[in-house]
Amino acid sequence: MTFLAGAMLVVPANALAQTADPSDRGDAADFREHDEDGEPEPYEYGLDGMPKPSWTLNVSAPLLFDTNPAWASSGSSSALLFAPSVSLRYSHPGLMPGWDLQLDASADADLFSKDPDEVNEARLTARATLFHELEDAGTFSLRIMSRWTYVGEDFSQFDHAQQRYTVSFAPNISDKVGASVSAEYRASPEARERRFVGTGNIDVTLVESESLRLGFFQELAFSRFTGGSNDGRTDLLSLSELLLTPNWNLPNGMRLSFAASLNHRFSNRERSRFTALQVGPTLGWRF
Q1: Backbone phi and psi for residue 223, each to the nearest 5 degrees, phi listed first
Q2: What is the pTM of this model?
């Protein structure tokens, strides 16, 4: 469900940023995936009751109404966004004593109903993450990630590459409340892309019954850029989301969710500020 919630999590901001701010188009994709929750995906268990190495294929297909697809400070004409994604994950619990390994490879895209040559974007991502349980305190993790981005109506134009190095901690709070904090450095051949990022989020279950779950997710990401034309720039990017997940009798592995996500950026550069609302359903499959 975390994957879907994230997938649903909307914000093609990366593509959106092409006309408003070309320096950080990956932010929205991060939000959509909720990848910074600091915890591994649920493991599979063998007959002995112990977690075992496993492969997982996830497919997601959000269809969203976006009020500001260009992520522009002055706003932009609303559009529909189709954001398909596919990811392959390998999980190896207990790779080393006390440490679990998770490897991910994924491809996703932002396809807009208006101005596709300007805002369409596709991404290829590879990640390796180590998780360590700190007894009853929570989960500590280390991650290395590489992302390659392509833009244009047919994604024919290579835009930029980025490497991310992240340290996260997700405390054990309760079954209805999840949270995490992380520190990250983003490296890139382009100086304007380099920055330090500090992130904090909280995920709260507001209503849960046999028929549905209503959750609230809030994330704040503070960035300080360290080079190029963005040197000295600071941003605070906020995502607030309500996520409704009905418990319908769907085929095994299929999930459906509905989200309303409000994204807002505060920045010391006026052209980098924006507000965008995305609303719509996400259908996902896990194999």
Answers
A1: -120, 140
A2: 0.84
Q: Where are the beta strands (DSSP E) in the chain?
A: 44-45, 51-52, 54-66, 79-82, 85-96, 99-112, 121-134, 138-151, 157-171, 177-187, 195-208, 212-225, 234-246, 254-267, 274-286
User: Distance (Å, rounded) from C-alpha 130 to C-alpha 136?
Assistant: 18
Q: In one letter, which amino acid is 172? A: N
The conformation of residue 47, written as its DSSP 8-state character, comes to T
DSSP state of 192: G
Q: What are phi and psi of 209, to 5 degrees?
A: -145, -175
pLDDT tens string 174-221: 989 999 999 999 999 989 889 999 999 999 999 999 899 999 999 999
What does the alpha-carbon distance between residue 102 and residue 171 come to, in Å, rounded to a whole number? 19
Are the beta carbons of 31 and 9 closer than 8 angstroms? yes
Burial class of residue 49 in the structure, from the number of CB atoms within 10 Å of its CB (0-12 exposed, 13-18 middle, 19+ buried): exposed
Tens-digit pLDDT profile for residues 221-239 = 999 999 988 899 999 999 9
Cα distance from N-terminal residue to C-terminal residue, the chain:
13
Q: Are 66 and 81 in contact (CB under 8 A)?
A: yes
Query: Whole-angstrom Cα distance, residue 267 to residue 195?
Result: 14
Alpha carbon distance 151, 142 (integer Å): 30
Q: What is the DSSP string of 80-141?
A: EEE--EEEEEEEEEEEETTEEEEEEEEEEEEEESS-HHHH-EEEEEEEEEEEEEETTTEEEE
